[in-house]
Recover the amino acids of this structure.
């Protein structure tokens, strides 16, 4: 899989101008927020109207949701974004990443890339149990006893992980 940025070198060089860079970031963030809200609202398992999202977000009017879905608006408050996220039963994450990470995150704006599952207790507890089960399995030696010359082998589902023997020198 190729690595690197999805932008040309010439474009990245234009971003050396701080004013252009700041304007670009603001435009991309506004666009992503608007597209995210709309994609989440129209997601197949929801298919909410703007009016329905407004109702679930604390009684906001359809016109408020329409503005939030406009990339040209850009005056969302943190509180409003928290309320919108809560309406979707999703957490909100605000981050200030390094540039390479920012470009990577901002590149996916398709409806599929913006789709999110709401809070699901069964799924999340299953994920937590799976992690704990993996840790438990990794700590269960099978094979040679402690003090043997070869390291023990630990099983993790279909793969075998060989523990590194640590010897003092």
């Amino acid at each position: 899989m190729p690595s690197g940025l999805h932008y040309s070198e010439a474009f990245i060089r234009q971003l050396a101008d701080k004013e252009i860079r700041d304007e670009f970031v603001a435009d991309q963030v506004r666009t992503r927020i608007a597209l995210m809200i709309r994609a989440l609202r129209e997601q197949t398992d929801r298919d909410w109207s703007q009016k329905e999202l407004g109702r679930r977000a604390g009684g906001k009017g359809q016109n408020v949701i329409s503005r939030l879905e406009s990339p040209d608006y850009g005056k969302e408050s943190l509180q409003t974004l928290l309320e919108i996220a809560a309406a979707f039963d999703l957490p909100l994450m605000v981050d200030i990443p390094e540039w390479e990470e920012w470009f990577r995150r901002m590149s996916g704006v398709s409806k599929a890339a913006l789709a999110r599952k709401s809070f699901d207790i069964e799924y999340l507890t299953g994920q937590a149990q799976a992690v704990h089960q993996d840790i438990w399995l990794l700590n269960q030696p099978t094979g040679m006893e402690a003090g043997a010359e070869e390291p023990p082998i630990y099983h993790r589902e279909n793969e075998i992980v060989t523990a590194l023997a640590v010897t003092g020198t």
Notes: The helical segments are 9-14, 18-42, 50-56, 62-68, 78-87, 99-106, 111-114, 121-138.
